[in-house]
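Ticket 4471: requesting a sanity check on a complex prediction with 1,3-dihydroxyacetonephosphate. Repro inputs:
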Amino acid sequence: MLIAGNWKMYKGPVEAAAFCRALRELDFGGCDVVVCPPFVSLAAAVAALAGTEIAVAAQNVHWATEGAFTGEVSAPMLHELGVYGAIVGHSERRQLFGETDETVARRVRAALDHHLGVIACVGETDAEREAGETEAVLTRQVEAIAAAAPERDELVIAYEPVWAIGTGKTATPELAQEAHAWIKSLLPVPVLYGGSVKPENAAALAAQPDIDGALVGGASLELESFASLCREAAGA
Ligand code: 13P
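Returned structure tokens:
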């Protein structure tokens, strides 16, 4: 069971270091744990978690090795920091920052080329689900990622229905299972569920056969909720 905490734009370097030092003392029930701080806090997190099994990943990565790309960070730069991998194509990037299937694919390829693991995000909006387009949207998004990563090593998909992110509206375990099975029929890699995962619903989600872990936003920002969520998922 892989549990990744996406901190989004929370926790600067000082807070990240203190949080990661505290993480070292917690029981995660045997889950593989990844934390994904903002870029500026990655080095602090890597240092604070050195010598542990807890991995650190970035929240995005650019496709070029270097160049005139103001505000972007490259895969070799992340690798140099000791970061394990990167989230790519999060719905907040797709919706708020113009990320497309094409740019997601380019980021995936660059990360893999530079020995970074990838957590590539897919998921439909509320309107797409209402219109019966969920499978078509997932197919389009997953196929773009699959084409960029034919070797599939070091690739994990995160299914994050947009309507469930930060809303408290978690997908039911059955609905999530259905989407995960569809994704795996297109691309057989581990699939994490994301969208309002909490200690209270982690076990039921993790009990589904095609749910291999979780990508957690809000509940990953607080030590006890994150650790108890991991223990619940591990016990499933
Ligand atoms: P929440 O867990 O806050 O709904 O966020 C999910 C998410 O976007 C993780 O990447």
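Notes from triage: The CA atoms of residues 19 and 197 lie 20 Å apart. Leaving this open until the requester confirms.
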